[in-house]
Amino acid sequence: MSIHKMVAAHPDVAGDPNEVLATAARHAMFCAELCTSCADACVAEPDDMRQCVRSCLDCADVCEATARVAVRRTGRNIEVLQAMLETCVRTCELCAEECARHDMEHCRLSAKMCRECAADCRAALPTVH
């Protein structure tokens, strides 16, 4: 199943599914799961990874909330959606920076996904009107 198809099927979309926003929502969902997984892996590391755990869990929560707001198409709440996308961009950037400090594969993967999610949310911002 594709989030793009689901959004396109919404009665209020009327032929304008905003593919860029749907992609941002999709990647925010993926980012939430990867950050949660990274946080869990950080807990198993022998080093003190508490800041990375915190960054990943915060990022997961923000990404999940952003994805949920982004796929809602009934009515309009443009200011909230823009604020969520902006917050997601910044939170992903901060998480990517934290994860990049650690030489672990799970942190590298999380940082990469965070950068991709930030780029997608940044690209979606001008499409929200």
From TrEMBL:
It holds the Pfam family Csp. This is Four-helix bundle copper-binding protein.
